[in-house]
Design goal:
By secondary structure, this protein is mainly alpha-helical. It has a domain of 99 residues. It is built from 5 helices and 2 strands. Strands 1-2 form a two-stranded antiparallel ribbon. The longest helix has 25 residues.
């Protein structure tokens, strides 16, 4: 990754390896400068989109027969799941079916990790602790609730805190970063 500075014409350039880029992105996220205000405003809906895809993937790998929504086309189920996320009763129904579906899976089965992640993320969503970014709060009215003093596990009026367990960081292997180019996850 190259970083260039210029004022009219370039005057500084530096190259970063992946570990340095990861640290820089982390610094930008910690200081609140990674996402633009427009990105921050759209991020809660992006998180719901990712959650919807995760839940739909669950029903692709497990409990296809118990899927509580109709799939119109190939991988279009997330659209129905997305509308269901706005209704707490439907979220409870999804969790109930998913819990039953997980009981029929074994850790060695194909798709098991996808299914457990989807169930854990939907449970965190129901509890108000789901987020893709550590230390970020999800407000019911679509705001982020981010403040300088936001800490995981604390509650602010009208906002749901982030559960650190909902965002798992990859374990480093041999001193190298476990990330694979995704800034948020």
């Amino acid at each position: 990754m190259k970083i260039k500075r210029s004022y009219g014409k370039p005057y500084a350039e530096t190259s970063l390896n992946w570990n340095q880029a990861e640290r820089r992105i982390h610094q930008l996220m910690e200081s609140g400068r990674f996402l633009t205000p427009d990105d921050k405003a759209r991020f809660p809906e992006y998180e719901r989109f990712i959650l919807s895809r995760d839940v739909d993937s669950f029903f692709h790998y497990a409990a296809k027969e118990q899927r509580p929504y109709q799939v119109e086309g190939f991988f279009d189920g997330w659209k129905q799941v997305r509308t269901m996320l706005d209704n707490p009763v439907q979220v409870d129904g999804l969790l109930s079916v998913m819990k039953d579906g997980l009981q029929s899976l074994t850790p060695k089965q194909y798709g098991y990790e996808v299914c457990t992640r989807a169930y854990d993320r939907l449970s965190a969503y129901k509890d108000g602790s789901y987020s893709l970014i550590k230390g970020r709060r999800i407000c019911p009215k679509g705001g982020t609730g981010e403040t300088a003093e936001s800490q995981p596990g604390t509650k602010a009026p009208g906002c749901r805190p982030v559960c650190p367990a909902a965002v798992k960081e990859p374990e480093p292997q041999n001193g190298k970063s476990g990330r694979t180019g995704t800034a948020f996850l």
